[in-house]
Write a structure and sequence with these properties.
mainly alpha; elongated
Length: 95
């Protein structure tokens, strides 16, 4: 916005602040929404890939959201999460 927080608060009246809060309630913006958009794209790419194993669990956008409270995964949980993804085959060169 090109202004400091103090300058912004000095120029923003109560009505405008209330309007921005109402707009945010209807159409959220900022880093949390950006993470959700990235999660939607990542889930679509993974779920749509043809090399996924049959029966693999579909991922959701929330699987990709950055959260602080999320506990660390164990090795067994990581292996289970990756079980549905097949490695890429090496390409052979045609002569």
């Amino acid at each position: 916005m090109g202004r400091t927080r103090k300058e912004l608060l000095a120029s923003l009246d109560s009505a405008e602040l209330t309007a921005w809060q109402a707009f945010f309630d209807v159409e959220p913006f900022g880093p949390l929404r950006d993470n959700l958009h990235a999660g939607i794209i990542a889930a679509a790419l993974i779920n749509g890939n043809p090399w996924r194993r049959k029966g693999a669990r579909d991922v959701t956008p929330s699987d990709f959201l950055l959260t602080v409270e999320r506990p660390r995964q164990t090795v067994a949980e990581m292996k289970a999460a990756l079980a549905g993804v097949r490695p890429r085959r090496k390409r052979t060169r045609r002569k």
